[in-house]
Amino acid sequence: MSKYKIAILAGDGIGPEIMQEGIKVLKVIEQRNEVEFDLIEAPFGASAYFSHGSSFPEETQRLVDLADAVVKGPIGLSHQESKKIPVDQQPERGALLPLRKRLNTYANFRPVYLPKSLAHFSPLKAEVIGEGIDIIMVRELVGGLYFGAKEMGVNDQGKRYVREMLEYDEDQIAAILHEGFKLAQSRKKVLHNIHKSNVLKSSVLWNEVLEEIAGQYSDVTVIHTLVDAAATALCLNPGQFDVMVMENMFGDILSDQGGGILGSLGLMPSACLGENGKAYYEPSHGSAPDIAGQQIANPYSMIGSMAMMLEYSFNMVDEARNVWDAMQSVFDAGYSTADLSKPGSGIKLLKTADFGDKVVQHLMANN
Ligand SMILES: NC(=O)c1ccc[n+]([C@@H]2O[C@H](COP(=O)([O-])OP(=O)(O)OC[C@H]3O[C@@H](n4cnc5c(N)ncnc54)[C@H](O)[C@@H]3O)[C@@H](O)[C@H]2O)c1
Ligand SMILES: CC(C)[C@H](C(=O)O)[C@@H](O)C(=O)O
Ligand SMILES: [Mg+2]
Questions:
Q1: Active site residue 256
Q2: 1-105+280-367 and 109-273 share one CATH topology?
Q3: Cα separation of 330 and 351, whole Å?
Q4: Which of 47, 121, 217, 244 yields a CA-CA distance of 20 to 30 A from 93?
Q5: What CA–CA distance (Å, rounded) separates 247 from 206?
Q6: Ligand 2 center–CA 363 separation, angstroms
Q7: Contact 19, 297 (CB under 8 A)
Q8: 284 in contact with ligand 2, CB cutoff 6 A
């Protein structure tokens, strides 16, 4: 019997609601495999700030250090509410970025997936979706603008100013590019390198490093695309992309655009991987304060993140596949949550918990 300790950080907004559905799925996986999941909940995010005085309390820090994997719901407050917390202690700066740094999860895999049969979820025309969308965005997660030196103050002319640095060294760049190349090798052997070397020196170094290591992956074709052009191409012809590799900020923005072309951020799971098995799993989206507490959020992103954990942290590849298939079966049967079931769409509406229940039913049926 394998035993795994999983830190459960439910987070804010819709976090607890969608986490609940992911846990339902893990319980099923546990029942039918020689595996035991020790699920340990811990405070994290704005809710933790209010209850414990810190958005990443020490007890949670200790837990993520010893856990075999961490699953995390989205954190954060609405723009207005966030003013109740001092800027540096807000959960994005005070919890999420420190979690990424602590586990050194430099490689963030964000699948953007929509089979042809679900093209009606997308705001794009069926002919634009073509044979479907099947992209994995590989985002560098512990460098760049997010973690560079920052300074704010008043300059010699008495003007307030800010300076934040986009910093990378060659090892950080090589590490994420290797991830992109290896993934491309296991898929269509095409790597879209997303950059902005016409302006940013960071992209010039990025591309230099890419040229240096590309020889190790001679079976992979590299296609260079400027990030702004990539944004357009994602809307006009998403089918041209397979593996896209990019720095932190580009990946943040393009992955949300990925959710847009699918039809909902609720379809965006992700895996954040580091060295020596360190990993955490989270939806790509935020805490959705506009719909929190109403049981209308789509838990696909959270359940999908758990499927990625089964595959990457526990090597339970078949069960991960079963989870994806079960979610697909719910959609194929004509159901979805409110984000994808607009009035008149003909799609039968499910509450958050009902979606989780249906996934469980399909999983059990596929035993
Ligand atoms: N990794 C994270 O924890 C993370 C990621 C992004 C944003 N945030 C934080 O979340 C807060 C809200 O940010 P935002 O409103 O800009 O973005 P958001 O991703 O929370 O929401 C954007 C839109 O997508 C919808 N949406 C998101 N997830 C959904 C789901 N599972 N099902 C159905 N609809 C869904 C929301 O209702 C909203 O209309 C902010 O505090 C932000 O900093 C956290
Ligand atoms: C909340 C925020 C810090 C985070 C990011 O920008 O990385 C989020 O938008 C994401 O995409 O995970
Ligand atoms: Mg984002």
A1: yes
A2: yes
A3: 13
A4: 244
A5: 9
A6: 31
A7: no
A8: yes
Hey, where are the domains in the chain? 1-105+280-367, 109-273
ipTM reported for the complex, 2 dp: 0.99
Tell me if residue 357 is catalytic.
no
Nearest to 184 by CA among 123, 137, 142: 137
1-105+280-367 belongs to CATH 3.40.718.10: yes
CB atoms within 10 A of CB 150: 11
Question: Residue 20 carries which side chain, given as an amino acid letter?
Answer: Q
d(CA 160, CA 45): 30
Q: Whose CA is nearest to atom 37 of ligand 1?
A: 288
Q: Tell me if 282 CB under 6 Å of ligand 1.
A: yes
Cβ of 124 less than 6 Å from ligand 2: no
How far is residue 40's CA from residue 291's CA, in Å, rounded to a whole number?
26
Question: Is pTM, for the whole model, over 0.90?
Answer: yes
C-alpha–C-alpha distance, residues 75 and 71, integer Å: 12
Dump pLDDT digits (tens) for 216-225: 999 999 999 9
CATH of domain 109-273: 3.40.718.10
